[in-house]
Amino acid sequence: MTFHQALAPAAALDLPQPYLLFLGDVTEKGYAKTAFGLRDWAADRCVGEYACPEATVSLGLDWLTPAEAAARGARAMVIGVANAGGVIHDSWIPHLTAALAAGLDLISGMHARLGDSPALKAAAQKHGRRLIDVRQPPAGIALATGRKRPGKRLLTVGTDCALGKKYTALALARALRERGLKADFRATGQTGIMIGGGGMPMDAVVADFEAGAAELLSPDAAPDHWDVIEGQGALLHPAYAAVSLGLLHGSQPDVIVACHEPGRLTMLGYPDYPVASLPEIIAVNLQMGRLTNPAIRCGGVSLNTSALDEAAALALLDSESQRLGLAVADPMRGGPQFERLVDACLAS
């Protein structure tokens, strides 16, 4: 069964490529995770970046106007922002319409629908361009059954949003395939869907059907097949815990990998809420996950050490492994720590 066959037809996408990545007016890297994810995991599909004058975040790509990007072969501009609430700001509209006028389609993973903007709808019609909303779940999602499905499943969970759950899932899926195992990355957010070409936008699913959507995303599989499922939010997040719980119950993971960014003390965008400790987030995921898979276990920890130099990062990985009694790695650094994490995930 291929990735696209495993999903409802509406969840498989054929997006116009390559892309110009639009950063809006972002001043915090965490809110540009869509753009960074595409840069890091689909670099061959990205020709450059573009932003409002107010933006202070850069991807390090060539800065191109929409017309310049089109001249280099770009076929679409992707809104690379994942802000709170998924809002398309009015200040973006002139830049988005400029992309349409330059002959680019628009791709968005925001909650707000592109076609709900009269200006964008009119510009798309005028220039014969498409408005493509990725955060659109397929029709006909059923309630969860709770039935234990054959196959192996790994879910990345986290202490907060935008700290490495997607990167960890992508790296683990790749590592399993490199070891000769059957493994698929299962995307659950807009960026992962753009990278993988399909998936389930979990935070756009009606609450009663969250677990059912996760079951649909990861259906029956061969006993030796791994679905590596991208986590969403955090079980102890004041806004997004509901999505995390539905995904946990529906995916029925055999293994979880807990993701964390060292040094992050409060939730992104929620400064009054401290980030949970790794032991706490592991314990609550195991406790809640046992409802649909009593055999759930933690395979280890993924740390986002991008803010640290190599020596400091490796020292932290080793000290945290000793403290937690678990395999601890930064998947983006690889190395023996990551190989031990993969081994721990596969251990029966």
From TrEMBL:
Q: Which residues form the D-glutamate N-acetyltransferase-like C-terminal domain?
A: 144-336
The D-glutamate N-acetyltransferase-like N-terminal domain sits at 60-137
Question: Where does the record locate the signal sequence feature?
Answer: none
Q: What is this protein called?
A: NAD-dependent epimerase/dehydratase family protein
